[in-house]
Amino acid sequence: MIRTLLVDDHQLVRSGIRRILEDAEDIQVVGEAGTGEEALHLARENRPDVVLMDVNMPGIGGLEATRKLLHVHPEMRIIALTIYMDEPYPSKLMEAGAMGYLTKGCDVDEIIRAIRHVSRGERYIGADIARHMALSGFAGRAGNRFEKLSRREMQVMLMITQGHKLQEISDTLCLSPKTVSTYRYRLYEKLGVENDVELTHLAIRHGMIDQLQ
Fold first, then answer.
1. For residue 188, with 0-12 CB atoms within 10 Å meaning exposed, 13-18 middle and 19 or more buried, which class applies?
2. Domain boundary at 105, 138, 171, which?
3. What is the maximum span of the chain, computed from C-alpha positions, in angstroms?
4. H-run or E-run covering 78
């Protein structure tokens, strides 16, 4: 059996995926998590073979959760499951060690196929993602300003655009408030914005966050 952990901050999404996977005779759902922090805890307890990881969640988010999880449990296989097709998400997740990347618009068979592939140590990129990345390559990637951000800058940017306050970001990322402020103004400089509102609008335009969050 392929022991699988589901990580998504929406209960309805997790329930839907669980029902899909229950029809596969070789896949067992061993737990559900709603945040990256909870995923780290459940992974230690349940030792899944595969983790289906949402990208944009409260707290440390799926990108940092992937890095932390694989640092402690390098044998685990992670599939990013998200609404985002645009760079830099696919590249950054794969660089962090994810073995697969799917969008939530993929069909049932593809989710099951991806789990089976990565459980054998094979990479799996959804067909829609592969097409999108190929087209982006032809068009050039210089247009996405977020690609120049470092890992830590990306973390801080996501938490700012999710509405987290300075102290919350400081506590979650184990950084001093002064350091978080430094990252914030570095983001403004790199992305050509002047405040958090402009940063959030830019992130929405580039598909980095969901406008409905």
1. middle
2. 138
3. 53
4. strand 77-82
Last residue of a domain, one of 79, 113, 138: 138
> What is the Cβ-side half-sphere exposure of residue 55, based on CA atoms within 13 angstroms?
29
CA dihedral sign of residues 11, 17, 20, 25: negative
Mean pLDDT of 36-53: 94
Burial of 145 (0-12, 13-18, 19+ CB in 10 A): middle
The continuous run of DSSP H or E covering 37 comes out as: helix 36-46
Average pLDDT over residues 123-150: 63
In the chain, how many domains are there? Answer: 2
What's the whole-model pTM score?
Answer: 0.66
- Considering the domain architecture, whether residues 8 and 87 belong to the same structural domain is answered as yes
Q: What is the CATH number of the domain that holds 23?
A: 3.40.50.2300
Do residues 46 and 4 make contact, with C-beta atoms less than 8 angstroms apart?
Answer: no
**Containing domain of residue 45, as a range?**
2-138
Describe the strand order of the beta sheet including 77-82 as a list of residue ranges: 27-33, 2-7, 50-53, 77-82, 100-103, 124-125
